[in-house]
Each structure stands twice: as C-alpha cells, then as structure tokens.
Amino acid sequence: MMKKILCLGLCAALTAAGLAGCSTEQTDQSASQDTVSAETTGTAAADAGTETAAGETAADPLRADEGTTISVAHCQGEYIYESFYEISDKFTEMTGIEVEWIELPATDYDTWVTAQFAAGTEPDIFWNAPKEYFDQGKIMDLTAYYDQENVFNGVTWKDCFTDGALVNSMSTDGTKYISTAMTGFTFNLYYNKDIMEELGLGTEPPETFTEMIEMMKVCKEDGRYIPMSVQNLNDTNVGWLERIFMDDLFHNTDVVEKLDIITPNGAIDYPEAMLGLETGVLNYDDPRFEEYFTLMKDLTQYWNEDYNAAGWEYEGLFNNGEVLFNVNGGWYPGQVVENGYEVNYGAAPMPYVDSAYSEFGLDEPLLYAPPAGEAVFFISQKCADEGRGDAAVKFLQFMTCPEGGAQMYIDAVMLGSCIKGVTLPEEVGALANAETGDAVTTWVQLAFQFSDEAYSKYRELYVAYLDPSSTQTAAELIAELKEEVLPLLDEAIEDSTVDVMSYVDQVQG
C-alpha cells in the first residue's frame, strides 16, 4: 500500500539553517556544458529486457523492480492527495513498487528542495526543480528511456506526448531529456452559462473580439452582471491579453522574420527586441501599437471596477456568479473542484482580434502550436546511483500513459493534457477541440519590456493609462513611452550579454 509523509512547518527551520530558497520559476536558467549521459546512471534498461538482481531476465518487465520503494515529493493542493493515492495504489498493484508520498505546502517547497539537495537527502522523484541541478550532476538523464518503449503500453515513450510537449523537459542546452510533463499551460476565456442563457446570448462563447464586445455590451446595458473580470495588480492576467492581441495585430508583418536572427525560434527575445528598436524594425510609431492600446482601453469599460488594484480575488466575482466572462489560467477548473464552487461555466480559447474590429485584425484565428508541457517529475541522480532508477522511470511512464495514471490525474486536476489519448473533462472539453497549427507567441510586446528598468517604467505608465480616471489617449501614452522608456535602450544594449550591435548589419530593411 501507499505510504505518505506530511511535511509541515518547514520554513522556520530551514531559514534558521541559513538555506536560501530557489524558485521553480528559474528552471530555464544557467545552461552548462556539463551533462550526465545515460551510460553513467547505471539504470538504463537494456534492449534485451530488464534484469533482476540475480541476473535473470524477468518474465514480466512490469514487475522487474517488485519490492522496491520510491519516494515522490510534491507541493500540489490537498484536494489532489486522494487521487495521487489511488494512482499509486494502481501502480503498486501492477508493478509491485511501493510509493512513499512526501507532501509539502507550495510556500515551503522551493526551500525544502534546496535543503534536501544541500544535505544529500533528496527524494527519488520530485515535482519541479531548477534545471541547473542537472548541470551539477544531481538529476538523472532520461534520454535513453524516452527512445525506448513505455512499458505500460508498448509505445515509444517520447511518442506518447503531443507535438512539442517535451520542450520544457529538456536540459538547459537542449540536448537531454531530464524530466517529464503531463499538462500544458493555457489561458482561457471562462464564461457563465447561466448568465449567457439569461441574457439571451446563446450557448456558444464568442470566437472574435467583435462578438465578445457585443456580448459584453448587452451585459453592461442589462446592468445586473459585470461583463468581464480581470486583475491588473500584476501583469499576469492582463499580460495574457497583451500577448495574444499583439500577435493578432502584427500577424501580417515581417517583424519576426527580420529580427529572429540571434536566437532563431520563431519569436522575438530580449536582445532581438533591442535590435528591432535600434534598427527601426520595431517602432513605437507603428499604428499597430496605437491600435493595441486603444483596444485595451475599450475593454476597460467592461471590467470590474477595481481591476487595477485587484489581485487573484477577482476570481471570486466569477465564482459567485456575478460575472459573464473571466480571463484565467488553465488551472481554474481544478480550483473549482478543490473549493467546491457551484458556478456553471464553460471554457474556450481567447477570442481573436478580427478584421471587423480592426484594420489590422485577422479574418480567421491564428492556429497556435499545442502548448509545451510543464516540466514536472524529475528523478534524482541519487535515486539512480542507489539502484532505484528503473523503478522511478516506471512511475513516470505510468503517469504519462493514458491507460495508467495520466487519465486519472487529468480527471482530478482538470487541466489540459499534453499526453496523447487522454480525454479532457466536460468542463474544458471545448479546449480539446480547438484547432492547432504551428503559430507561436511572437513577443512583440518586448519592444516596451526590453530590460527590467524598461519593463518597470512601462508598467507604471500602462497601469496609469488603463485607470478608469485616466483620459489619456493611446497616442498620448505612446508619446510618453517614447520619452520615458525608449531612452533606456542604449544602456540595455550595453548591459546585454549578447553583442546586439554586431547583428545590426544583418537586419534587412
């Protein structure tokens, strides 16, 4: 049977020990040339089959590690605990491998992981960690396993995932698989089905910006409900809108084609944004920027009154049935389950800026590539060195097999899955039917966020512009950005680790 260890009250003890936390948001930093090959793990399964301790080939590869106990640390909400226990019980039944769960509050998790690695007491499997631990030889290389069959369904393991799902599961230099993924991040438009029906808006969510505006007009004129709830205390929420609307408005330009030369990946990164501003390919006077700021100002009349000061409590307005539309992340359905909210809602992709609304708009939506999976389960090199590597890999394969733990997990958390064959819950089923293509987020908005100082000043001016009391026009905001943000470009180029100026001659006019 499953074992569990509940770790609470860790922060004070760890702080007293002088251990600094290390955020899981930093998993993409500090690339190194030092990697650990699969040959050094001592656990990569041979093509001929898995061997038992006695050197005999096991008749059933699923049970080759029977009797082994592996530890799995995570920081997920308590609502998921019972589902994890059910998953591990099924895994143990099939493999004979026991699972010991280590459960931590999310607020303590980063500090705890840092402490375990510092003390050499890290668990076998852990939920997210900075990728530099792989560069330090503390995370197991899974590359050889991904090229072999998932023992639970006979499919090559890396083929069990949707296209691009494992991008974030690679080492910092992009050459090794070092973790696995189960879900991908999305941000969506959530809509209240009861309010839609009550206002005579039909049953289908809006697909275009024009349709969304028309629905919100009806809602505002009715007066009983808030058309849309957002928060702008930080840029997470409104920043998602910025990302997709900028893509829509710049879709038919050659900006990315001209600037994507420093790190070619179909998008603009920070040095390329600097390059664009230096060469004039990105220009604050581009009418598309003014159109974007005008569009966002138009939206504010439909938002909750305190949007500029609201944090995540803005969700409560939607949970309580006071709001027609809510902009939120893919995790929201899981929160509904965890907290028992009684809101009758649906989920849909964000509407696109259409040509009926803007001369720069689209005639049909951009088809984005499926989201890359979020790197979750890593295996410690210590686990491999102590002979439990194969058993730990089996657990990861079970969690990423739809006939195993993958479907059970998605049913519990109600997130989008990056594993083939998994059926999404009804509440988010519309997202599963969304068409995909090869479009990626272009990050044109980095024209205003090319350095920390530029971003800070941009946020200050942008938040003031969006304030309900502001009468500033989009053109006036741009003039202010040219005066306050653009002069920071020279210093940013000078401080950049990339020699931005060496690429100037490569940019075609």
Please sum up the structure shown.
43% of the residues are buried. The protein is built from 20 helices and eleven strands.
What does this structure look like?
This protein is α/β, with parallel strands linked by helices. The chain has a domain of 229 residues: 3-Layer(aba) Sandwich (D-Maltodextrin-Binding Protein, domain 2), CATH 3.40.190.10. The protein contains 20 helices and eleven strands. The strands form three sheets. The protein has a five-stranded mixed beta sheet with strand order 1-3-2-4-11, sandwiched between helices. A four-stranded mixed beta sheet has the order 7-8-6-9. Helix 1 crosses helix 3, helix 2 runs antiparallel to helix 16 and helix 8 packs across helix 11. The chain is globular, with a radius of gyration of 25 Å. About 10% of the residues have low confidence. This is Extracellular solute-binding protein.
How are the SSEs placed, and which strands pair?
Blueprint: E1 3-6, H1 10-16, E2 69-74, H2 81-95, E3 98-103, H3 106-119, E4 125-127, H4 132-135, H5 143-146, E5 181-184, E6 187-192, H6 193-198, H7 209-222, E7 226-229, H8 236-249, H9 255-259, H10 270-279, H11 287-300, H12 314-319, E8 323-329, H13 332-339, E9 345-348, E10 373-375, E11 377-379, H14 381-385, H15 389-399, H16 405-413, H17 429-432, H18 452-466, H19 474-484, H20 489-495
Parallel strand pairs: 1-3, 2-3, 2-4, 7-8
Antiparallel strand pairs: 4-11, 5-10, 6-8, 6-9
Helix pairs in contact: 1-3, 2-16, 8-11, 11-19, 18-19
Region (Disordered): 29-58
Biased composition (Low complexity): 38-58
Signal peptide: 1-20
